[in-house]
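Pyridine nucleotide-disulfide oxidoreductase domain-containing protein 2 (Geodia barretti), 546 aa
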Amino acid sequence: RARWFVRWSSSRAPSSFQGQRFDAVVVGGGHNGLVAAGYLAKAGRSVAVLERRRVLGGAAVTEEIVPGFKFSRASYLLSLLRPQIVKDLELKKHGLKVYLRDPNAFAPVLGSEQYLLLGSDPEENRRQIAKFSQRDAEKYEAYEEWMGEIADAITPLLDNSPINFHNLFCGNVIERLRALKAIGSLIKISSKLKGETGALFELLSAPATKVLDRWFESEPLKAVLATDSVIGAMLSPYMQGSGYVLLHHVMGEVEGKKNAWGYAEGGMGGVSQAIARAAESYGASLHTDCGVSQILVREGRAVGVRLGDGTEILADVVLSNATPKVTFLDLLEEGTLSENFESHIRSIDYTSPVTKINVALRGLPNFSQHLPNAASGSPSPHHQCTIHLNCESTQLLHDAYLPALSGRYSSRPMLELCLPSSLDPTLAPPGCHVASIFSQYTPYHLEGGWTQEARERYAEVVFDSIEDYCPGFKGLVVGKEVLTPPDLERIFGLTGGNIFHGAMSLDQLYLSRMSYLSPAYSSPVPGLFLCGSGAHPGGGVMGSPG
């Protein structure tokens, strides 16, 4: 049984809510729901957050799966959290601390002593890439600058609502002004892009390989970069749309450093804990073990929620941090929505390729063929990286993708291995480590089903792959947890196991997230809003939807 590192005790029994009214009720205590609660409470509104599980944070949680080992159980890296939210909610004051990773990518090449190690030092990157291609070594810095310029240009999209054309032409004065503000963000983007508008369109629509092939020739480099184009997505880097996912994952920053990633101290639950503390300090009421069974609609308007025990909590507005499917198809009474809108919600793509494996290790993994461990036993710079395995070529990523289309998985899955305990000593006993393994591609509907035996077989495939690069890895394993797409859905409420609350494809972004019939955060039900990753601008531990 898991023990909870980040835990919030409900300040009252659910029955004592009876008859109380709030300005807002938030369904689900994921990080976006907590952000929404923080802003509402800071503005002087009375707000209650109701979380089904015993721990706040949604997929951004820290849990002790193996005694003494604390895991970022689902999400595991921080970069996309918006700096304005960190500032507005005073998250550092409330305990947020991030360990910056540099270098950040380590890719050993199987069957040789070669490896690629990338970080923020341009000269070192040039030296590393030159081992594979002198031409690529000379072009890499220009590529990073190009991607950075495009990412900087479209960043305002993350911090502003999409244009609401109905409000622009038919709304009241305030609604029209808000719509004009969204247009202003697009104008800023156009001015920043200058001559790169065509490049942005290509990134949004093209396969990642088309872009990468034009820049580079060495496969290990292209494959490492291409992993960002498919992470969390049932896509091959050869498929259209993978270019945008690539862009999405270079739009973040840590401690003011662009395109940087870090480990939150105490795991990803440390992020949610800081947001929760901030929200509570402003007056928000946070409650765990309070699963919502229904969103109440009376006379055509959302007026509150009903808990699993029948308790009704009334509010002027209801914000849902759940996925669009859970919000509109599971929590609303049948017949509340129009058939047209309901069909749009049913058509959202939640396909997920992800199986997350959390592993407790009695020692430090040793990539002895590439970068042997230090004699002292202390972690080396490459241990703090995302370690890319089975990523020697983009074709290998594509080959890992293909079996999932027919309900199977590859014998060489795409693996991203992280060891956050290499920087954060709070996660494991002295000398021990925790490993987060983000693996693709595993279908939701596995041939034969995801039985316990099937989970064990898949874990063995993954561990065998790691053992090929890191001899002795399996002997370090103290315990593990295998979270397949159905597990991610059951535990965290992620429909289909999709970590983004819906695929980040062009037809499900901006005006079409959650649906072009009701873009951004509003819904056809007055008083009901979406504040989770199923709303613009989408997934990742970002906070913007909230």
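Residues 134-154 form the longest helix (21 residues). The longest strand covers residues 312-320. ok done for today
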